[in-house]
From TrEMBL:
The keyword Cell division does not apply. The chain crosses the membrane at residues 15-32. The gene is CYP503A1. Heme binds at C435. Signal peptide: none annotated. Belongs to the cytochrome P450 family. It holds the Pfam family p450. Keywords: Heme, Iron, Membrane, Metal-binding, Monooxygenase, Oxidoreductase, Transmembrane, Transmembrane helix. Its cofactor is heme. This is Ent-kaurene oxidase. The keyword rRNA-binding does not apply. InterPro entries: Cyt_P450 (IPR001128), Cyt_P450_E_grp-IV (IPR002403), Cyt_P450_sf (IPR036396). GO terms for molecular function: heme binding; iron ion binding; monooxygenase activity; oxidoreductase activity, acting on paired donors, with incorporation or reduction of molecular oxygen.
Amino acid sequence: MSCHKYAAAFMPKEAIGYLACLLVPAILWLYLRKIVGSKFPRVGKNPWIHGLANARNDFLKNGRALTEEGYQKYRGSMYVVQTADTERLILSNSFLDELRALPEAQLSSRAAQCDRHLGYHTTLDVVNQSSLHSDVCRAPLTKHSAPLALALYEETQFALTKVSLAKCVPDSEDYEYFSAYPMMMNTLNRVMSRALVGYPMCRNKTWLSTAMSYTINAFTISGTLRDQYHFLRPIIYRFLPARREIYRQLATANQLLVPLLKERATTGGKIDNLQWLTDSAFIGLAAINASNMGVVNAIFDLCAMPEYIETLRKEIEKCTTEAGGWNLSAINNMERLDSFLKESQRINHPGIFSFNRKVLKPLTLSNGSVIPKGTFIAMPTYFIARDAEYYPSPEVFQPWRFYEKSKANGKANSQYQFCSTSRENLAFGYGKSACPGRFFAALQMKIILADLVMRYDFKFPDGQTKRPESDFADERISPSKTQLVGFRLRKLAK
Ligand SMILES: *[C@@H]1O[C@H](CO)[C@@H](O)[C@H](O)[C@H]1NC(C)=O
Ligand SMILES: *[C@@H]1O[C@H](CO)[C@@H](O)[C@H](O)[C@H]1NC(C)=O
Ligand SMILES: *[C@@H]1O[C@H](CO)[C@@H](O)[C@H](O)[C@H]1NC(C)=O
Ligand SMILES: *[C@@H]1O[C@H](CO)[C@@H](O)[C@H](O)[C@H]1NC(C)=O
Ligand SMILES: *[C@@H]1O[C@H](CO)[C@@H](O)[C@H](O)[C@H]1NC(C)=O
């Protein structure tokens, strides 16, 4: 028999009422003291004083300013901030080395992803249940990257010439204008699909629209629900139109993919990423969004600094000539292109935080600080990447910054490659749970940008010389979704 039932049996109702009147404030006070008097300093509004909704809203609007304030005050240490989803302990990157070694059972990136993106509600919790996405991604996608590179190149050419930029006709002097963000999003959806489901399914309209709207619905659901109280979420979730659609989309995807899966199982399969997809569509689809931001940012940077286009063209031409055509080794040799993308990513980070983890077992840092179970931690990657201690003249776009660093450091230069992670650049995360798709994402982005640069001229509308400001909302940073970019096919003499 539970404690309160015992009490009820022996106490009159009134006494329970009085007791409750005393106990509830006492417990509340203890709880508040624990949180308010937390041993970590706080930046931004305290949800226990200003209200949770207020504090969240404040971060939603001023996330960048709050994080900058925190970075300046507690650069080498840590502080707590209420973000738009959970409260987070923001740690200095000086703790990276001790943290990266911890097992997933103690410091979990998956649990952080699921809790923060409301996995249970968006079928994203597949991420939680299997580590397949990272294993599969590491093995086949990397192992088969030579044939994959050819397939991606072919699909990029198709997607740009025949679909996204089909309005650009040969020999026309005029630029055709497109909103770069959605245009590239559709291109990436196609190129990504080529890798995930192969040809010809990657050209199937049903598949393409399912994959695209699945991503949008999943983001819609998590965006809507996280503003609600925990206990209301399952109820509200039931009535969200996006929920019904997600289930429909998964059913459609299954219908499309099952025959393919069967066929591959019997024929042995070629580049078999299907299992990966069906296990964890989210990873692939999230990658579309992230890769898209990378490509769009690089396009904006090239429009704003067209003087670098010629250098890139020369390099790409040299690499493809030397390799006798477009193949993986040609693409791997495009070091300036790699450097350009990395610098563009350094300046235009996709988010303010990285190294998001949830503490599943209490942990003690080297200096004795104890981080309690249930804490969400993160690192302020955006400000680390703009720290003059790591990057001289951090605000200046130096396209060959990483190229030169890697040349200066001789053989051991892989840390300056676009897809490598380092303490100073956490855009792809760090440690065991660093984004497993980053090799693939980097390959895909390089191919698309290289093909664009080689076959198209592009520019901002007349009169515009500067790239548009990125949109900051919450901890997310996005390149402008409406910026127009003009494209025309290059006249390739020869
Ligand atoms: C541990 O280091 C952090 C940052 O340097 C500091 O804020 C914290 O107070 C330290 N904790 C202890 C117990 O020394
Ligand atoms: C994810 O995994 C963690 C630890 O394994 C667990 O505590 C959590 O409840 C799981 N979440 C979901 C959505 O399954
Ligand atoms: C897409 O693929 C499915 C399954 O192979 C097929 O039934 C359908 O007709 C295709 N749709 C289009 C638009 O090609
Ligand atoms: C992609 O990322 C951007 C910026 O972080 C976000 O606003 C958007 O909701 C995400 N999802 C889609 C489907 O665009
Ligand atoms: C591709 O790369 C290899 C080096 O790995 C090279 O020998 C070959 O000639 C290249 N070109 C083509 C068109 O395959």
